[in-house]
């Protein structure tokens, strides 16, 4: 049995929905995105969906699998609320545990709008607590972000990244502990992604969601680790260096399937490109 950790977020739930239609040896554990790395390195799971930032900052401890990447052109699960629009953005309230979303917010505000707000950390704060603060802006992340209703200006971080980089934002990669990748594991993840994608429309319709989310799951959420995902990862790696998060452009620790073990039927397991 392969122990797999995914986020308790609806996009990740879509990925594992494939288990309803295909038999694969996965036992699924759900956790917050910021808990996944600890579970993987602690030996609690064999493979985990990690925030891309965690993979890049811990590239000496993990290997990303060239199987599936969770990316999107838009992402209603991470939103920036600007109380006064761009008239004043000097402070930004956020939950520091969502480090990846905080970094992307910093990048798009600086690169798109020439704004460099001072982060104000509220660890564990709810959506309502962040919205009720005195800061000029706040970052809302999680399953309750899509239903946010406010008269303030709201930015979708996924859309902002796409408009900045021209590629979909890669929110998560499936990773194993260093040196523990295998062709069988890559194939199993690809089969799971394919099974989920084949039921995409049915799954999206079955969710009691707002129309915006139905469109998101049908047209924006991507599962394929392809050239678009790789190009986006290159942009992200360069921004980590440019914003001095790392001393150099970090390597992407990508597991490589040995040539003599490449699946001749790999094309059958490809996930359609969105």
TrEMBL record:
Gene3D superfamilies reported for this sequence: Periplasmic binding protein-like II
Keyword Lyase attached: yes
Annotated InterPro entries: Menaquinone_biosynth, MqnA
Molecular function per GO: lyase activity
Any Pfam family hit: VitK2_biosynth
Keyword terms: Lyase, Menaquinone biosynthesis
Pathway(s) where this gene product acts: Quinol/quinone metabolism; menaquinone biosynthesis
GO biological process entries: menaquinone biosynthetic process
Protein name from the UniProt record: ABC transporter substrate-binding protein
Organism, as annotated: Rhodothermus marinus (Rhodothermus obamensis)
């Amino acid at each position: 049995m392969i122990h797999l950790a995914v986020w308790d977020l609806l996009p990740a739930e879509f990925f594992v929905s494939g288990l309803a239609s295909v038999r694969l040896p996965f036992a699924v554990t759900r956790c917050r995105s910021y808990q996944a790395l600890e579970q993987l390195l602690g030996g609690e799971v064999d493979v985990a969906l990690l925030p891309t930032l965690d993979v890049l900052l811990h590239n000496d401890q993990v290997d990303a699998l060239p199987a599936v990447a969770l990316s999107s052109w838009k992402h209603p699960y991470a939103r920036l609320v600007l109380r006064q629009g761009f008239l004043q953005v000097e402070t930004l309230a956020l939950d520091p545990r969502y480090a990846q979303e905080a970094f992307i917010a910093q990048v798009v505000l600086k690169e798109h709008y020439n704004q460099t707000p001072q982060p104000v950390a509220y660890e564990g704060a709810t959506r309502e607590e962040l919205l009720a603060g005195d800061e000029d802006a706040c970052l809302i992340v999680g399953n309750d972000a899509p239903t946010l209703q406010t008269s303030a200006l709201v930015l979708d971080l996924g859309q902002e990244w796409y408009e900045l980089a021209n590629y979909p934002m890669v929110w998560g990669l499936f990773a194993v502990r260093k040196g523990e990748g295998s062709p069988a594991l890559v194939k199993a993840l690809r089969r799971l992604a394919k099974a989920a994608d084949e039921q995409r429309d049915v799954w999206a319709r079955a969710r009691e969601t707002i129309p915006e989310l139905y469109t998101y799951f049908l047209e924006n959420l991507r599962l394929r680790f392809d050239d678009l995902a790789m190009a986006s990862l290159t942009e992200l790696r360069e921004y980590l260096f440019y914003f001095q998060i790392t001393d150099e452009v970090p390597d992407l620790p990508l597991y490589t399937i040995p040539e003599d073990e490449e699946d001749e039927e790999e094309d059958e397991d490809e996930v359609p490109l969105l």
